[in-house]
Design goal:
The complex is a heterodimer.
Chain A: H1 2-34, E1 38-39, E2 44-45, H2 51-58, H3 60-94, H4 98-109, H5 116-121, H6 124-127, H7 132-139, H8 154-178, H9 182-190, H10 195-224, H11 227-233, H12 240-249, H13 253-277
Antiparallel strand pairs in A: 1-2
Chain B: E1 7-16, E2 19-29, E3 34-38, H1 45-53, E4 60-65, E5 68-69, E6 80-83, H2 95-105, H3 110-123, H4 139-151, E7 157-161, H5 169-186, E8 189-194, H6 197-203, E9 206-211, E10 214-219, H7 221-226, H8 231-237, E11 240-244, H9 245-248, E12 256-260, E13 265-268, E14 277-288, E15 292-298, E16 305-310, H10 311-316, E17 324-329, E18 334-336
Classes of the chains: A mainly alpha, B alpha+beta.
């Protein structure tokens, strides 16, 4: 009897295990294996070489690109966290009726009904040299020359990131905030806490798991991104994703794979560091 | 130490739009007394407490503490402290930091405030749990920490919102004793909101029975029980039969009278005692409660009457459900009720 039930347990676990195996373990294993392969202009050659990693780690371009990517991730993280927290706070604590909360929450998600690329491209007519922003500012007499930094710049890249990913911060933080017992805020007020003191000593600590989850989303997405950087910087900025993309277009799959492994390790360490700071299991 | 101040509520009113939650109540709570606000849910007792605490704005009227009008002051400036119904301990802070919270808000340095918090935890016998998080404590322990947190500001009045309702019955009675002992020791006023008449009777120096936003009666517990002011009070505190004065053949202005259930005599059969007033009915239920037996009697045209009979007296003339019985009482046990 016991033997049978053990088999049934394995059977129940099997589908999920298979999915993980097929779509997570096998691809990653392939990438790791390929990252040690040799290649020339037309083909990849099975081998076990450290050359791909050597070339990558010894090149100053790699280091610059990684620094640039980390910089994008850090700036985007700060901005999305700031904006996301404020929006979530407004939704959770200032909007009193549950209906309005739902309505406003849906309004936040509406941009997500269109494709990522469309949302980015729609910035172009707005930010361009003769775009809406520049024309308006010139007509208002605030500037004489069009502002060049608006489009095809790091500014544009960060702007697009913030636009695209703030919602990933809003949702988990909002979720954390909704779990805060409102009597805690009253208890804080009863103890003489001012609004800011309550925010800092009660709301923020209790939102930490939501902040951590949102941060993991934003940081991992930005670190792996290449479309936004290419479109919004007009090819003037680089990112690790773009680097891999270039390698692949030259059929240098092993080089791209080695880069992917390094990026994966970097992201894993970042996430591990966040998880050490905050126990997100409370939120799941 | 100066004598703690009295609290006075003057024509205190709370409206939510059209609905009146608290309707112009007036009450004086003498210094150092244990006051219970008692009533069914929605009677305005919690709103009253929250107005005293400053968590609810009064629509009209004043709250006076000692010589000071505190109606418009923020909660922490009133000299009151509140203990919340679910205790509202901060889940991310350990017991010490929970208790020290208000000191931290005042900018008192870490060592001083944690030291004072541990002192306070000692007073509620929770010092050995100082490093635990609220989630690692039982209900009774959480309550003690919440008490310590409320008391660390040296309030002149402690406000308790249904403090015992989250506890199991056994613990409830123990914490009840502890609350009373603490109040006696501290000598400050406690205002305690409850819907349990047992709790109010056991604890209070002053019971305030509320209904529909008004005070029905404010008096010491014995007076509330022996001379309920209205039919509502008599029914709510229990242990009374309320019946029309004409039926009870009583004299007085009121249309209704109350007779304590334990002053009722129940005889099998239909013969009444001489020198008493009596009613005929049919026993509906007989519940054995240990020292007493509770008998419910259906009397035509009246609500079910109840009689509480000591076990020994019940054994002399036992009654079974379905049997005809005679209820009787002495004229001096009839209490005329106000309107």
């Amino acid at each position: 009897m016991k033997r049978v039930s053990a088999w049934i347990t394995y059977l129940q676990v099997a589908p999920l295990a298979l999915i993980f195996l097929l779509f997570l373990v096998v691809p990653i294993a392939t990438i790791v294996v390929v990252s040690f392969f040799d290649y020339d202009t037309t083909r990849i050659i099975p081998a076990f070489l450290l050359q791909n990693y050597e070339e990558l780690l010894l090149s100053p371009v790699t280091w610059r690109t990684y620094l640039q990517t980390i910089e994008f991730a850090a700036i985007t993280w700060c901005l999305t966290l700031g904006i996301g927290f404020v929006v979530a706070y407004f939704l959770a604590f200032h909007v009193r009726s549950a209906t309005w909360q739902t309505v406003l929450f849906l309004v936040c998600t509406i941009p997500f009904w269109t494709s990522n690329v469309i949302r980015m491209i729609s910035w172009i007519p707005f930010l361009g040299r003769h775009g809406l922003a520049n024309t308006t500012l010139i007509k208002l007499g605030l500037i004489k020359e069009p502002l060049e930094f608006l489009l095809f710049s790091d500014f544009a890249v960060v702007l697009a990131y913030v636009h695209l990913y703030t919602l990933f911060m809003v949702v988990p933080i909002f979720n954390s905030m909704m779990r805060i017992d409102r009597s805690l805020l009253e208890a804080a007020r009863d103890a003489g806490a001012s609004g800011w003191q309550t925010l800092w000593n009660v709301v923020v600590p209790l939102c930490k798991p939501g902040i951590a989850i949102g941060s993991i989303f934003v940081v991992t997405i930005v670190m792996g991104d290449f479309v936004t950087v290419r479109l919004m910087s007009g090819g003037q900025s680089a990112s690790v994703g773009l680097m891999m993309m270039n390698a692949m277009s030259l059929l240098q799959y092993p080089a791209a794979a080695a880069n992917a492994v390094i990026l994966l390790l970097l992201v894993l360490f970042t996430v591990a560091a966040m998880m050490r700071l905050v126990d997100i299991r409370k939120e799941l | 130490m100066a004598r703690p101040p009295d609290i006075e509520l003057v024509a205190l009113t709370k409206r939510y739009g059209e609905t009146v939650a608290v309707d112009s109540i007036g009450l004086r709570i003498p210094a150092g007394s244990y006051c219970c606000l008692l009533g069914p849910s929605g009677c305005g007792k919690t709103t009253t407490l929250r107005m005293i605490a400053g968590h609810e704005e009064a629509s009209e009227g004043d709250i006076i503490l000692g010589a000071e009008n505190i109606t418009l002051l923020p909660p922490a400036a009133r000299g009151t402290a509140m203990m919340f119904q679910s205790y509202a301990l901060f889940p991310h802070l350990d017991c010490t930091d929970n208790v020290a919270f208000s000191l931290k808000m005042r900018g008192i340095d870490k060592d001083t405030r944690r030291g004072r918090a541990v002192e306070m935890l000692k007073r509620v016998h929770m010092d050995s749990y100082a490093a635990r998080l609220p989630a690692q404590l039982s209900g009774g322990q959480q309550q003690r920490v919440a008490l310590a947190r409320a008391l660390i500001t040296d309030p002149q009045v402690l406000l308790l919102d249904e403090p015992l309702s989250a506890l199991d019955p056994f613990l409830r009675i123990r914490m009840r004793e502890e609350l009373k002992a603490l109040q006696t020791r501290l000598g400050i006023s406690f205002i305690h909101v409850t819907h349990s008449q047992d709790e109010a009777m056991a604890l209070a120096d002053l019971v305030v029975v509320m209904n529909g936003g008004r005070i029905e009666q404010a008096a010491p517990p014995r007076e509330v029980f022996n001379r309920p002011a209205s039919a509502f009070v008599a029914k709510f505190i229990g242990g009374h039969n309320v019946l029309p004065a004409a039926v009870a053949r009583a004299t007085g202005d009121g249309a209704l009278v109350a007779i304590r259930a334990d002053r009722m005599n129940v005889q099998p059969g239909t013969a009444g005692d001489a020198g008493t007033t009596s009613l005929q009915g049919v026993a509906r239920s007989v519940e054995y409660l240990g020292t007493t037996v509770q008998i419910g009697v259906d009397v035509p045209g009246l609500e079910t009457m109840s009689a509480t009979v000591p076990e020994a007296r019940f054994d002399v003339a036992p009654v079974r459900p379905g049997e005809p019985v005679t209820l009787s009482w002495k004229a001096e046990d009839v209490h005329a009720l106000g309107a």
